[in-house]
Specification:
The chain is mainly α and 84 residues long. It has helices at 2-12, 45-51, 67-80. It is 38% helix and 0% strand. The N and C termini lie far apart (24 Å).
Length: 84
């Protein structure tokens, strides 16, 4: 599950968000995925991913994940979160 989530993040998120320990994301305003829990409760992102994630900035595309993708991406995000 975590590995599938990592692959999904690599293909869908890495153009803008840093996936690992990189100092910053490729797109400056995009948070590193390992820091996402500082902005959102990661476990609650699943609902947004399933319904269609919409942001207030135009650079992030809208997307909807199926149930498996949702579960996998959440598992990956939980696994990489930085310590507070």
């Amino acid at each position: 599950m975590v590995e599938r989530g990592r692959v999904l993040a690599q293909t869908q998120c890495a153009a803008c968000h840093a996936l690992g320990d990189e100092a910053s994301s490729p797109l400056t305003p995009a948070p590193r995925l390992r820091d996402i829990s500082r902005r959102y409760p990661v476990e609650q992102l699943g609902e947004a991913f399933a319904e269609g994630f919409v942001t207030t900035h135009s650079t992030m595309p809208e997307f909807v994940l199926d149930r498996r993708q949702n579960r996998d991406l959440i598992a990956y995000l939980v696994s990489i979160q930085a310590e507070p």
